[in-house]
Amino acid sequence: MKKKSIYTCPYCGEKTFNPLTKALAGGIASKGHACPKCNHHAVNGKACAVISAIIYVIALVVVFYIYFIEKEDNTAYIYMATTIILAFIITRLIYAFAFPLIKVVRNDV
Ligand SMILES: [Zn+2]
Known about the structure:
Elements: H1 19-25, E1 33-34, E2 41-44, H2 46-69, H3 75-97, E3 101-103
Antiparallel strand pairs: 1-2, 2-3
Bound molecules: zinc ion.
C-alpha cells in the first residue's frame, strides 16, 4: 500500500505540494495555498495549530522573562526580537515538514 504523503492535496489526492508551498499554506485560520492541479486551497491542520500555539506561548514567556529580568540591558531587545523570529521560523518549519494538509476551513476562499 502506498503511504499517503503529507504533501498530498486533500481534494484531488495528488502529491502537488512541497515543503515551500506547504509552509506558505499557513495555519488553520489562513486562506491556504492553491493546489496547482485542482486549484482548491489547502491549509495545515489542527495538530499544526496546537503546536504553533505552544511554541508562541513559550516564546511569549521567554520575551516576558527577558523584559522583566534583563530590561536594564539594551541587548535584551535583540534577544526578544530573536525569540519571536525563531518562534516564527520553527512554526514555518513544522508547517513545511510535519502533519498532512487538510481542506481549507474558512468559507470565504
Ligand atoms: Zn488538488
